[in-house]
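Hi R.,

As promised, here are both runs. First protein below:
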Amino acid sequence: MQYISTRGGAQPLGFCDATLAGLAPDGGLFVPETYPVLSQETLASLVGRPFEAMAYTVLSRFAAGELPEVALKADIDAAMGSFTHIARTPLVQVGPDHFIMELFHGPTLAFKDVAMQTLARLMDRILKERGRRATIVTATSGDTGAAAAEAFRGAANIDVFILYPDGRVSDVQRRQMTTIADDNIHTLAVAGDFDDCQRIVKALFVDRAFNEKVAMSGVNSINWARVAAQITYYLFAALALGGPQRKVAFSVPTGNFGDILAGYVAHKMGLPIEKLIIATNQNDILDRASRTGRYVPGTVSPSTSPSMDIQVSSNFERLVFDLSGRNAASIAERMADPRTGFALTEAELAEMKTLFASGRADDEDTRRQIGRTYAETGLIVDPHTAVGLKAAAEADLPAGTPIVTLSTAHPAKFPDAVEAGCGRRPVQPERLEKVMTDPERSTKVAADVAAVAAIVLERARAVTA
């Protein structure tokens, strides 16, 4: 299987090369030339199977023979073995036909662990076999950085540089990145917002000389392998609730559109999905775009759900590419400067609405939803999950349709926001105790491409090698 750029200016790559590259050299995102299809018989055969079996079924289709079966299964098993729940992503019922899928049982207590733990092992295996090093430069609004630091810590062939917006992630999120003592992990506190971090990373990717000198790669949701690994939990939930014979809806808290894009790809692969609900906080560019067809970035407003404090949603490009009939020239023109915005055509918006709906929750809505959920179910949820629950409650679905809200983070990662909502301080998992006391390591840097590039050039082992 070949992977092509959404902007049409890059040579097609195989799965392993696309995984190492991360972002396409023309600034676009890699997507498969065609989506592999899982037959209804194949989906039915996965009912009741372990999460690992579903993950192999998905990833083996995208790897298309590039990774030996034994090796791929071993990497998946090792990755999922880092989770504390036997089901990996268990479902909890919170109302009639309404379920929460807990995606926070991995090492950093956030949904990013599901894909990141697998991606780290795949990349390390590929690099070792090729006798190469890589330099990962990634932007995070909180959870991606923590998951990357944990997954890649100590990797012999990989250095990781994590850009996070200084003062705009929770204390727990920051400490999960900055207390990693391994020499290959470098955290950079950028004087700006997440969009500044993301802008810098993209600029470094398209600088061919810099990219080649440091052997640059990326692991946030611009990396197709991350999206592919996340498809698994959509299958896991849908098949547990009556699929493939019964359609299921999903409410997905999202800022960069990567998590919900995985649901879209699951649908393209043959999983029957009634609706994918885009749940946003007050940084609601995705809600506005899905309602009006106008994608117009604004100013990032800090919130109690900081992982969604984004106004330039990278993965939306992959969806628009498909909506446009895979018209790469159109995407290159519209995405040349994402901050200027663009419009979907009437046909593109109409097609999007056949599968997607959206909802919005500001900080006050989020606080109330945390309190309401606790009062009605006794469950304590984090603010991102609360945003998803509000969107799910407002969804217009056929009677009897199960809806799954993705619970993307453990409430202990956002204790102040949780306590403000329900009056209870979440119990701190044992995994966080050391994080909250260990010394931190971080470098403050201006929101400037050259400043970040200088740090990477100075520290990356791929340069000296």
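And here is the second one, sequence first, then its structure tokens:
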Amino acid sequence: MTDPKWQALRRETQAVRVAVAPSQYGENSEALYLTSGYLQPDAATSARRFAGEEEGYTYGRSSNPTVTSFEQRLAALEGAEACIATASGMSAIMLMCFSLLKAGDHVIISQSMFGSTLKLIGSEFARFGVETSIVPQTDLAAWQAAIRPGVTRLLFAETPTNPLTELCDIAALADLAHNAGALLAVDNCFASPALQQPMRFGADIVMHSGTKYLDGQGRVLAGALCAPQKMVTEQFLPVQKNSGMVLSPFNAWVVLKGLETLDLRVKAQSGLTLELAQWLEAHPAVARVYYPGLVSHPQHALAMRQMSGCGGAVLSFDVKASSPQQARARAFHVLDSLQVLSLCTNLGDTKTLCAHPASTSHGKLSEAQRQAAGIGQGLIRVAVGLEHPQDVQNDLARGLNTLDSL
């Protein structure tokens, strides 16, 4: 649990200060502890620590001081009692589901969620008797109708979604979940705690892929679950110890340092993304732009209330086309014309990254699933970095301006 002395501080201060206490050497920058085991002062203390009766480090699969620093810092930023770090965002989802669900339980998820999340919960966990209902992200009535009293254990939403930036009303979903005796988990990867704190609106669990904005420079994989202390200690931690879904100390240290600049990066990138979205919306080769910061976005007002007045740093757009085949060819032409921006499926980097979701992040879904999620062949996702906006526009214009030559 985060030291109470940090809780009264503002988010920007927490992002650079919350951590375990320095060692006897008094390091100002948090230390990187590369060890798999820990010396014990005596056998009795060792026994108490391994039994969970006394705090203390025992083995790398259970805990590590560098990982603890990351967990405490992220928990403080999310306004959570506790946090548990994992090897990746998908392993965080795996840990959550293994810890909370059993055969016969029912989960409701959005059809607009990340493709791997849909496959993991909707297909893999089905093999173990966990049933899943997939509903439209923005249709609150559909969420309500999907609830099975006494059986539904978890509602899991991503807001904004990848890649169409659809939002969910977190407070409304929290009410639905709690009235049914279920939990609400929110994937806060796109917004990050710099723009959105789902627990303020009633979410029980906040999931992160630390690979994205928490790191911020595309260096390592990481994941995390923020939740009440009792849930982390009694439900998540035992499963993690037995399964080994742990975050390495080095990756924890990298993301821990990334958190120090999170607020500055995400707010700057959000401003640049709004500028790019407005430019794309006016481009004659673009059919539609998906970005919550645009007034044209159907959930713009909700975004402004729920996301600290920013739309985030990811947008998507459809190129104009007369058929799915032409749309795919035109999207590929834009991406293949890039000379500055990166063709890369990650996001959250300081470099602007462009991707074709239908053939990458959502490529393993069926065509029917992609259509239900609104992922067309002409869709391009742009995760905006920190380059000069004119250079970003010029690089995209290179392909957009030559589509008629195809």
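A quick note on the second one: The two ends are 58 Å apart (CA to CA). Let me know what you think.

Best,
J.
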